[in-house]
Fold each of these.
Amino acid sequence: MRWRFLACLRWWWVCWIGIGQALGAGSVIFIHPDGASLNHWNAARLYWVGPDAELNWDRLPGLALYRSHLEDCLTASSNAGGTVHAYGRKVVYGAFGNNGGQPITALSGKPYSIMREAQRAGMAVGIINSGDLIEPGTATFLASVSSRTAHEEIIAQLLAAQPDILMGGGEQWFLPKGVVGHHGPGQRSDGRNLIAEAQAAGYTIVYDRTELAKLPARTRKVLGLFASGATFHDQPEEKLRAAGLPHYRPEAPSVAEMTDATLRILGARRQRFLLVVEEEGTDNFGNVNNAAGTFEALRRADHAIGVAQQFVRRHPRTLLLVAADSDASGMQVVAAGVRADQPLPPPRSPSEPPLHGRDGPGSLPFLAAPDVTGKRLPFAVVWIGSHDTYGAVCVRAAGYNAHLVRGSFDNTDIYRLMYRTLFDRTVPSPVRKR
């Protein structure tokens, strides 16, 4: 009898611990506006709401400075930065879900990413990207390849992982060559039709914003393919103007619309989740020095933040975490001497970068949204180059555990905070040399 009593007591103790951990755990929405540094958000504030107003990004109470260095480089690549977020470990510059081709153990001790660990624990998981789904800021959470150019393998691994939600561009990598899809011809060389495979696996396929909006909340698995490549045209202003192309494809849903539809589906379930969302245009437009495109991308990222903020208010046991992994091309605002009615002057010397206005270098300047007095002041944009730099990246947060985002935040701390929220357990900080 005594051993039965002890076994029963032990069983109740295990159940109590499990219930306690479940009650202490929550869900995570990680929004990654790629390449968006503090200077980008300052410029976006001027342009979209004015110097005296606030973006959704401004209203996030958690604030910390982000440290982006890697194992072998002081500036991050998108693939290495995404890997650090997904595994909590410093990796080399060329890493993509591994460490330079070598297997990686996550900070929790598991041989897979935080998203795969969340899946194994019974949570729902999802990936959203305004760019091609091969983009590493999201793909590193489910794929591990030797090079970021292994596009076919990245997409095959994403689908094999069976996330609940998979939305973005990149239809071309789901279809074999010779097969024309909804948006264009396939590019796969292995003959596989991953759209057919997804349908067989129970996915509902949607191709535009209208189909996305009609998805019922009870939908179990969604594959959204909204462009052959990215949902935007990441080219300089002059090329887009010559080709008559908009910054974003009008039929494709915005990252905010994708996030809203996803949270409607996930919110209808009694299930914790990890959702990783990336606005890729903030990086790609910055790296081709398209200021107007960068402003549009930042606006879209801010709308996605607003959608997530509304969800957090209704579901307070949800962490909203926002961070980039680098600064795309060092966007800066210049206003002194800029006249609203005059085209921007050319550089005064070969070493001076050009001033960019609403239609590119030498055009009329941008006008900020009205200030508190109603004035709209002119400004120009200057880029320091076309590289991802260290910059002044900020981590912002709201909701569950947002109070932990303060001071200085290492890129590995993104993983640690997500892990603490999802599993109600802390993982040790990586050893840091002094």
Note: DSSP finds 13 helices and 17 strands in the chain.
Amino acid sequence: MFIIKYLKSIAYILGSILLFSILIGTFSYFNLLSNNVIKVFELIAIIISMFIGGLYLGRLSNKKGFLEGIKIGIVVIVILFLLSYLGFDMSFSLNTFIFYLLILISSILGSIIGINKKSSN
């Protein structure tokens, strides 16, 4: 049962990333925004997606929302790490470390807020 809630949370993350990608791709296709603004929107989209996934996972959890956020954040970071470094042969830098740290923090905050919203209802 506990694997199902993680898979559903990852599905929420991937679904929201897909929706944001369609929106950002549309802006890029019609040249409505510059490349720098689009890169910022891509970062914001991933942070919001991780927050949504953490929020969903926090609502399903019973206690210690920050640990659930750490778990889902690490799972997504490992997936991204494997895709970017093994698949695309990218090097590790301070920017990627900060990016992964932002992903982890947003999933932790989402799960903390999710578990608090659950207990207040």
Note: The two ends are 23 Å apart (CA to CA).
